[in-house]
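Following up on my earlier thread - several people asked me to post the actual chain instead of describing it. Fair enough. Here it is, all 136 residues.
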Amino acid sequence: MKYNFLLLENQNLFYERKDKLSSLNKLSLNILEKEYTLISNTIPQENSLISEVVDSIKNNLVLVNFEKVTSALKEVKNNQIISHLKREDYRKISYPVITETEHLKNYLIKNSFLFNIDSFLNSSSFQGIEIDSWYQ
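Reply from S.P.:
Thanks for posting it. Predicted structure:
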């Protein structure tokens, strides 16, 4: 599956053009030509997505990566630790995120071309998947 790739840095999305990163804005929005867009905070080494990801995105507006929580979790109330939580029971949202390009374009236009993962997911229906690698 072919997709657009955007690099996320400090709520700004960048695209690669002629081996140079450029900021995505209103004038450059038309470079997003593919049906889907992958957003990541790192540049992937591989190019093609595994079939599990391809199958899942076809049925969802947004696909989010979940990964295991590695640090200790505590429940806090009134600045006091009231319990220690089992990290095995929790997942955190991670990158990459893949979405239908039109959905992303609409979000960016409404949000001054700034990307905030919390805001984006709150405005989206999404599925989370947990796999070691999205790439072949």
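The chain has a mean pLDDT of 84. That should answer part of your original question.
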